[in-house]
Input
Amino acid sequence: MTSEGLESIIKREISDIDLGTNSYGINWKECLIKPIKQKYFSFDKSQVYDLWTVFEELPDGSGFKIVYDEKEEKFGLGVLTLKNELILLWLKGDFVATFNAI
Output
């Protein structure tokens, strides 16, 4: 999987949908980032995952993140903790369902 390949997956999924903003006023187009591979911990920190971060709620990197697990072929939700650790909250399925869950 490459960054460009993942961008194609997202574009294909949302090509017929205008997500606009969610209930918190987050505009998905403004929050998409060039996919970067990062290490995320499980909530209890017993596991480490190599996931692609594709979306950041806030420009400073805090807040929610949408991630992609290429092994599971699913998008999910992550967060940056106050201790500067990336935590995977869950894998949901597609990008749209994950965005709508924020």
Notes: The first helix runs from residue 3 to 14. The helical segments are 3-14, 28-31, 95-101.
